[in-house]
């Protein structure tokens, strides 16, 4: 099991709302997930056998048979995690989802970042995936992904909340390129006002601070694409 964003995690999306289905697919693909949208809702198990996903996103209200039915059918031979996504907010539906073999339940409407967090949590529980607490950036310089702390020698470098989130995103995707759009998405839940100019200032300040510590550039810009850590 590799980390999210590695391009090796395949999600099977069973959602008959075409607009929502496209939005979910496009969002997760920005994080390098492989997303397979099911469009043949009377042959979901056959689609599962063809796709072999690591996780299933399953709506309840579907044509032909509902999500509970397909969850039971999949559970007859597979323990792949299933996250229900549904507009139903009745506790009885949530209980039914879990008793039928679901691993989690996300109510519509939801923020895509919230859905991603749920998916990652289920993947970690299912596959016992754990990230390394500290990532080495340079000799004597580490980033602790658990506490979002930049550690130089025996001390901690002071960073703002925004800088921590940006650095965490860059480290997580290293050596890949992270677009400005992806960084803005990550920053949506901070208490600070986020604008395009604010992101530019944050990147500039973080780049200068890291270069001062390392005595060489650490964050680079790929023109027209985004940023990456070397």
Task: Briefly say what this structure is.
This protein is α/β, with parallel strands linked by helices and 230 residues long. It has 8 helices and 11 strands. The protein has 2 domains: 10-127, Response regulator (Rossmann fold, 3-Layer(aba) Sandwich); 134-229, Orthogonal Bundle (Arc Repressor Mutant, subunit A).
Can you describe what's shown?
This protein has 230 residues and is of the alpha/beta class. It has helices at 18-30, 44-51, 67-75, 91-99, 112-127, 161-173, 180-186, 196-214, and strands at 10-14, 34-37, 55-59, 82-86, 104-107, 134-138, 141-144, 149-152, 155-157, 219-222, 226-229. Helix 6 (161-173) packs across helix 8 (196-214). It is elongated. The relative contact order is 0.10.
- Dominant shape: elongated
How would you name the CATH homologous superfamily of the largest domain? Response regulator
Helix content: 40-55%
* CA-atom Rg in angstroms: 20 Å
Mean pLDDT, rounded to whole units? 86
Q: Which blocks of ≥5 consecutive residues have pLDDT under 50?
A: 1-7
> What share of the residues does DSSP label as strand, in percent?
15-25%
Q: What's the β-strand tally?
A: 11
Largest sheet: 5 strands, parallel
Q: Provide the succession of SSEs.
A: EHEHEHEHEHEEEEHHHEE
What strand order characterises the main sheet?
2-1-3-4-5
Q: If classified by CATH, what would the architecture of the largest domain be?
A: 3-Layer(aba) Sandwich
Structural class: alpha/beta
CATH fold node name of the largest domain: Rossmann fold
CATH class of the largest domain: Alpha Beta
Compute the separation of the termini in Å.
25 Å
Integer count of domains: 2
Task: Compute the number of helices.
Answer: 8
